[in-house]
């Protein structure tokens, strides 16, 4: 059974940085695209970033492009998302996802709050 567990959420000051982690168990990451999504209260879930399984190609949503980095460690079954220069638009529950086409597996999410 595949399980994804996010960590690293919490309170961040505006302008600060955050590194989220996603630990996978039950299956290796090698053949899966890994992605990060977020959902703020009253809003639909949106894609933040993803990284391919083959060539490590990355995609970023315009809202975080240029200030975030997604990475993966297949040997450790870990995926990471770092966001710099956090803004009041970044607070949300951040979810890790894994898939080969559609997103097959999802984590439970980790809460991110931005406040001074």
Structure notes:
The relative contact order is 0.33. The chain has no helices and eleven strands. The strands form two sheets. Strands 2, 4, 5, 6, 9, 10 and 11 form a seven-stranded mixed sheet that branches. The chain has a four-stranded antiparallel sheet with strand order 1-3-8-7, with no helix packed on it. It has strands at 3-7, 10-12, 18-25, 33-39, 46-51, 58-60, 68-73, 78-83, 92-99, 103-106, 110-114. It has 116 residues and is mainly beta. The model has no long low-confidence stretch (mean pLDDT 94).
Topology:
Elements: E1 3-7, E2 10-12, E3 18-25, E4 33-39, E5 46-51, E6 58-60, E7 68-73, E8 78-83, E9 92-99, E10 103-106, E11 110-114
Parallel strand pairs: 2-11
Antiparallel strand pairs: 1-3, 3-8, 4-5, 4-9, 5-6, 7-8, 9-10, 9-11
Comma- or semicolon-separated keywords:
116 residues; mainly beta; 7-stranded mixed beta sheet; 4-stranded antiparallel beta sheet; 11 strands; 0% helix; 53% strand; globular
Number of strands: 11
Based on Cα principal axes, name the global outline.
Answer: globular
Order of helices and strands: EEEEEEEEEEE
* Rg, alpha carbons: 13 Å
Characterize the quaternary organization of these chains. Answer: single chain
Report the average pLDDT across residues: 94
Total number of helices: 0
The percentage of residues in β strands lies in over 45%
Main sheet record:
7 strands, mixed
Distance between the termini: 40 Å
Sheet/helix structural class:
mainly beta
* Percent in helix: under 10%
Poorly predicted spans: none
């Amino acid at each position: 059974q595949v399980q994804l567990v996010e960590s690293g959420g919490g309170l961040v000051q505006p302008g600060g940085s955050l590194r989220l982690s996603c630990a996978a168990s039950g299956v290796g990451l090698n053949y899966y695209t890994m992605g990060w999504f977020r959902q703020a209260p009253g809003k639909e879930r949106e894609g933040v970033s993803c990284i391919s399984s083959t060539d490590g190609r990355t995609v970023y949503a315009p809202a975080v492009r240029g200030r975030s980095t997604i990475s993966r460690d297949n040997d450790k079954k870990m995926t990471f998302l770092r966001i710099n220069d956090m803004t009041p638009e970044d607070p949300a529950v951040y979810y890790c996802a894994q898939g080969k086409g559609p997103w097959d597996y999802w984590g439970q999410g980790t809460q991110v709050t931005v406040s001074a």
